[in-house]
Amino acid sequence: MQFLKIFLLLTVLGIGPYSMAQQNRQLSQNDLSKWYKFSNSGLSPDGHWVTYNRHYKKGNDTLVLVHTETEHRHEIPNGQSLQFSNNSNWASFKTPEEVNLINLKNDSIKTFNTYTDASFSASGTHFLLKNKKKHQGQFLHLESGNSLKLTNLKDVYFSKLTANAVVVLQSDPGAELQVLNLDGFQVTQKLKTTGTFRAIHWNPNGKSFTVLREEENNNSLLYVDLETGVFTLNEYELDEYSFYKGSSADFGISTDNRRVFFKAVPRVETTAALDTSQLANVQVWKASAPWTEIESPNYDWIEHGVRLMVWKPQKQEVLPVESKEQPFSLLIPKQRYALTYNTSQYLPRFKTGELIMDLNLLDLETGQRRRIVDSLPFIKNSFCGSPEGKYICYFKNKHWWIYDIKTEQHLNLTQGWEIPAYDITYDRSGIPPPYEVPYFTKGDEAILLYDHWDIWKVSPKTGVRHKLTDGSGRNLQFRLTKRPVRQVSVYEKLNFQTQQVALDENPLLKVKNLNTYEMGISTLSETQDEIFLSYDSLKLYDLQADSSGRLCIFKQESSDHPTRLMYSNLNQKSVKTLEQSNLHEQDYYKPRSELITYWQGGHKLHGALHYPVNYDPSRSYPMIVDVYELNSRKLHDYHLPSLTFQRGSIEPIDLNLNGYFVLRPDIRYELNAFGISAVNCVGAAVDKAIETASINPKAVGLMGVSYGASEAGFILTQTDRYATAIIGNPVTDLVSHYLGYLNFILESAYFRFENHQWRFDKGFYEFPEAYLANSTVHQAAQINTPLLTWTGIKDPNIEWTQSRELYQALRRLEKEHVLLVYPEEGHGISAKVARQDLYNRHLEWFDHYLKGMPKQDWMD
User: Fold this and answer.
1) Cα 625 to the chain's mean position, in Å?
2) pTM above 0.70, yes or no
3) Residue 352 above 70 pLDDT?
4) pLDDT category, 2, cuts 50, 70, 90?
């Protein structure tokens, strides 16, 4: 068994309850079973209970339920799927053998051995138990104790606002659908079929639902209005379409109960098969075609894709929302209008990342369609519909615009801003994106937009703006949190994910210092006074609040400090730790890292420097530089020790345990010079690290994976300062990759260069000298550094032939190089035995070239 000797670290800085033990133990593979992460954390609606799982690297997980004030807790080995009732009186969880119900008021637990699943009604007063294999179920009224047992149970669908549920009972043959009033367990309506019922979708207001009825000779969509009756749409009435047999999420009902949304697929006519025995098996590839044969599966939806339809039951009218000409749509909140568009209308597009399209507004009552935006690039976070359905917000020409549906007027909301509304840190080629999808306030009265630091309140009618925070002068970034704000109810796949916030409720904010990476939480009214809770040099994430938005939980961690689960009461301005994970880690080692600052080309950059365990400044240590874009952001990511390769990399702690510094530097890119940029920035970062700590300048190696491997490989063509390098799945020949395909998305690779990560603003044939100047294979004669490369033949992202090209080049040049080829692996290494093999080879290679240890046989 492999052991690593860990010596005593004499001086440490502890955070909270986490501090250094008096002696270190040896870390072995068997010890790794002690480490765990928090998963599935959640907060009860009233904020008084918290649940989470301790997810262990090896062994069984433990479910924890803890009271936020008394800290009374339940710990359940193998527990899973804990859920709270909406009234916060109850919780349920599962184990492999049973379902359990906890009364959160008196702490009693009731166990149900014969059921495998459970759920609460919307009110929290009823509890449903199910055994899917036996098709059995039972309703419990949690207040009265009354119950109703069900046999032949297929499924149950709760209304979100009323005391009703739809129950589907399946027998042979046929099925029965019951509308059940849970208060008295009374069946108020029944439907029967010789087939089955499926995909029930409740209107959020609880007044109606849809159900797909499937029978041997005909399928039909039923719209059940609990007040006015049942409406039927038969499949044969759809002419050229058939119902799409999706899930409940593929159906919807407008808030006014006048429109039903469903998805359908074009019918395929069967024709006699042609005799092709005498025809040549050949593909005709036309350079003028909108897409290539390889890309054609991506565009099959134009002819055969699923289409959104709207049905107006009272009028018995069906209107296609999507079509061959307009194959995509998004419903506007309130569901009176839909946006439709076609991302293929301007093909061929060689800057594939820029999906250029026209936006059209479809009136779902009249069927009238009008174009509202021409030639719009569809980029990340670029669309938003207002909660009341009055406005459409879109991002174009580096500005936020708003379109008033009623007046048909457009208004530039960010014109004249001193600080841009787009991401000023974006350094790739192409269009810089906005920061996030905007929020709206109540009644669509204002829209909230971000700049680099602050939150702005803007009138959608006049564009008048008011800054709500003051972060720019302090280099603090303020952001609304996504979960605590009240979000408008949406129809899942069919609607905009519109975000709404109530400013009068003093919403919760996250604050981040962009110089130091310190993070904390605050509220809108307290940001001016710099009242920040839990503000620390730790990563803060997974922030969740109760229904009031005043009680919240979150996680904090850093590379030096294991994850801790925190609870905050904003009313009392208090914060406390609910659990500090991995306290035992201090018995084995205490990580240390710091943020270093360096300058390159007039730009201030950062790097994350991770120290070897038991660092002694009187010694000189080797260092491995992990290269990938802006890498210092990982300073506060906590990693469990693994002593193996983790799919795409080796974690810094595993290298620190083996006596290495690890440096993760930032790279500031110049267009058309990604490789040269990496050379200069990484070199400056290494200089600063050597100045900061006791690092042997002759024992510095490079490491990178994917794009980082491409950068690291190119660096070797420009300098001999590095003792060795290991790169995985690199792009080494920019020309062949530019002319190739990305198999995982079936797209030409042009866009990765002209509008994405490779950071060229021109194509190869417009600027060939820049491509060749940054291409590793074309500079391979200048490589004098021992290099280990690894690749997976099944890599769908970067073809393994890129590694083979570099191997061929270095072999012909008689350079020192080894290529590891894993025939069954892809862009990451998945198989356990392959991961361990690659981990061992990394250490053996670095140990030889950076520590002077003997060379292994496989390296000769």
Assistant:
1) 27
2) yes
3) no
4) very low
